[in-house]
Amino acid sequence: MAEPADLLVVGAGPGGYVAAARAAQLGREVTLVERGGSEGGIGGSCLHVGCIPSKALIELADAFHRSTSSSQPGLTVSGANFDLVAFQGWKAEVVGTLAKGVEGLLDGRRVRRLAGELRFAGPARAVVASAGEPARFIDFRQVIVATGSRPVFPPGLQPDGRRVLSSTDVLALSELPGSVAVVGAGYIGLELGTALAKLGVRVTVIEALDRILPGFDSDLTRPVQRRLEALGVELRLGSRVRAFEGEEVLLDEQEGEGRIEAERLLVAVGRRPNTDELGLEALGISLEPGGTIAVDDSMRASDTVAAIGDVTAGPALAHRASAQAIVAAEALCGLPAVFDPLSVPEVVFTDPELAAVGMTATQARAAGLEVDELKLPASANGRAATLAATDGLTKVVLERSNGRVAGVQIAGPHASELAAGAGLAVEMMATAEDVLATIHPHPTLSEGMHSALEPARRTPVG
Amino acid sequence: MEVEFRLPDLGEGVAEAEIVEWHVAVGEELSADDPLVDVQTDKAIVSIPSPYTGKVVGLGAEEEEMVAVGAVLVTVETADAAVGAAPEAATEAVSPTQPPPASPSPSPAREGALASPAIRRLARERGIELESIAGSGPKGRIQESDLGTTPAADLPPGGPASARPSAAPLSGRTLPLRGSRRLVAEAMSEAWRTIPHITDLREVEVSNLLEARRLLKARLESRGEAEAAQALTVFALLATIVAGVVSRHPAVNATVDLQQRQITYHDRVDLNVAVSTPQGLLAPVVRAADTLSMSGIARELQRLGTAARDGTLAASDLTRGTVTASNYGSLGSPSGTTIIQPGQTAIVGFGRAVEKPVVRGGAIVVGSVMQVHCSGDHRAMDGLELQAFTAELAATVENPALLLAERD
Fold first, then answer.
1. At residue B107, does pLDDT exceed 80?
2. Could you tell me if residue B382 is inside a domain?
3. Which residue does chain B place closest to A108, by CA atoms?
4. Which residue ranges does chain A devote to CATH 3.50.50.60?
5. pLDDT tens-digit profile of A7-39?
6. What is the CATH number of the domain that holds B46?
7. Chain B closest CA to A27's CA: distance in Å?
8. B112 close to A (CB below 8 A)
């Protein structure tokens, strides 16, 4: 016999759990289904195998590197070492604590949680299967699909957990190999490749395109590339893996064949939406090329189905999923919610970090806006100098007609922390004068945006 | 070559105008002096003819959009390689001494109008297109007050609450508030919000006034001044009386500024007269009405009335005066109420004269009775001052001979 469910949420990542909590806050009876497993659980990939554990590893690697290199002038540390077993224990604690926090939030809002794999069996019916338990049928009134995404692997490069690794495998290592070839110069490959290099691993990055981080302007990625090279990371751009034999990676390169030595291969070439095993056709929902679910600006795929996060077209980012979650929950509760942010911030935890909010100058011009781009090198920032991290820059895009800050891009230390302030300016449609009239504390990295705007200060017309 | 024609300065502090109607479309050929576009300024719809001959290759704004003075109105592909200086615009409203600024200031009501996310959400909840709003903040920033006073459909503040369906759309026809309707709506809302009205309503026997008018008119006709005779309406006499009486009562010819905590008493009477036109209510101004002769006022009223109905009023005819008179009686109503214009402290309304029994010399006779309705701004005056003004006005309307006393 089927159980009724008022609002069903599938997936408990940063999309699903936020949607469940918001809908419950609005008075709905919410059932949240999470399959768990090695790639997820309450909090999703982000908490268990993504954002959170990778930042923990990056922090460890950076601290170790500063202790053992000359990157911190005046500091010499003898006997600096790291213990990956201890690190893994601490990381598990961090993840566990945060997951408990999410569970506490859901329990406090009286969200019913079910563990198991869900498949849709009809326009308003789903089956939840869990090992060792009878299948449960759920008749739902509305559903929010928030099943996220998973890494993709090219043929022949399926991870085996020993020689060919996924990002999840790397984050779980208790022992480091001597050398790693990273396939993919996107943000996951470069973040983990940088961390491995700082921990003393010999790293080669193999990328089919002729540049790293193609989503970012090249003047922002240049400091990252310089730093990778300074860390001894070899970049093989315009290059593809043909085979991985023994400790040898065979490459197809523009100039012909290439080969590099690597004990392990880390494959980080992209992610695909988890929409293929849900039985979405039973809902009458069709998929777009690429496997994403088509939604309107209220995140609805139909009157009763909403989809959020990585299963919708756009960057696969936790904070995008959470923002869409609020919209979907409110829209399904009949409120006039729309997902139309001026900025979905993108941050990359490379060295230096990258942050982009709002529009780049190129995007703005393509959208028909007349804009000016103001730039300030990190070397002009006092705090960056004291961090011995002056390779970077801040770019501010100003709409010419009204002077508003249309976008900000930053390459520099702690750029990820600067994204929120810049994003607030973009969303508030602050003008250059608004930002200039806001006193920024000295000496901080946050002054970068303020200083970059200095040339836009209005001067009296004679 | 392509030439741009920018919205000319329409004078009298007009910074922007709303596009009411385009008479051309992209791709169409047009000749110099062909009607190009109708724009709505503070009060008038001004028709702007094309200064160029050629083919329209681009329009600078959609209908209903606000355009700043100096912003590109239209781009025309002309046949000549060289075009002279942009012709001065084409309406008498244009002040030739003020060329359009070199760089147009941004028009506030356009795509990308400045607004915070909370305001954008509020607008969405209220079904308001932000592009249709002219923000009152710096650089046209849209603030909550610009979205009107409808209370926000606030979300339930946590806790158990049942989800509500979105608000049902209003049934019937919903149209954008635009043109002079919008301007009247905004001005009257401001007046009603900010001006505490006090009123004095009097019934006046106007047989003497009507007789005076008959005599004056007959005199003009006998002199062969048919036009002047025709211009001498009852309202021309009433406006003459108003201008004279107002000039002796400073409180009804003033401007209150509560923010600056000051009141300005004007040293001349610029009399706005309400005129109903096909485009809506207009209030052109008779300047320095207190210094004009009766026939001068009559001529000016006739000119303004004709121009208003023809849509050819100049912007300078439409600036705010210091006091207003409304002849709503001409539309049939014997009695009515009035709302003071923002920036003024009084308005006088005249109803239609009707035959009524009146007591004269102890006997009941049939008289012509008109209601005179005066509203005053209580911030600028008390009942005493309003009554003093209304009493003198009513007495002079009842017996125009009192005008002679002014010459005493």
1. no
2. yes
3. B159
4. 3-151+272-332, 164-269
5. 999 999 999 999 999 999 999 999 999 999 888
6. 2.40.50.100
7. 5
8. yes
With beta carbons under 8 A apart, name residues in chain B contacting A333: 163-164
Q: Whole domain around residue B60: which residue ranges?
A: 2-78
SS3 sequence of chain A: CCEEEEEEEECCCCCHHHHHHHHHHCCCCEEEEECCCCCCCCCHHHHHHCHHHHHHHHHHHHHHHHHHCCCCCCCCCCCCCCCHHHHHHHHHHHHHHHHHHHHHHHHHCCCEEEECEEEEEECCEEEEEECCEEEEEEEEEEEEECCCEEECCCCCCCCCCCCEECHHHHHCCCCCCCEEEEECCCHHHHHHHHHHHHCCCEEEEEECCCCCCCCCCHHHHHHHHHHHHHCCCEEEECEEEEEEECCEEEEEECCEEEEEECCEEEECCCEEECCCCCCHHHHCCCECCCCCECCCCCCECCCCEEECHHHCCCCCCHHHHHHHHHHHHHHHCCCCCCCCCCCCCEEECCCCEEEEEECCHHHHHHCCCCEEEEEEEHHHCHHHHHCCCCCCEEEEEEECCCCEEEEEEEEECCHHHHHHHHHHHHHCCCEHHHHHCCCCCCCCCCHHHHHHCHHHCCCCCC
Domain A164-269, CATH number (from 3.40.50.10330, 3.30.365.10, 3.40.50.2300, 3.50.50.60): 3.50.50.60
Interface test with B, best of A300, A335, A343, A359 (most B CBs within 10 A): A335
Higher local confidence (pLDDT), B22 or B111? B22
Residue B320 binned pLDDT confidence (cut-offs 50, 70, 90): confident
Query: What is the average per-residue pLDDT within B243-260?
Result: 94
How many folded domains does chain B comprise? 2
| Superfamily name and number for A3-151+272-332 | FAD/NAD(P)-binding domain (3.50.50.60)
Is the predicted pLDDT of residue B47 greater than 80, yes or no? Answer: no
Per-residue model confidence as pLDDT tens digits over B137-159: 888 888 888 887 544 344 344 33
Answer with the one of B16, B51, B78 that is the final residue of a domain: B78
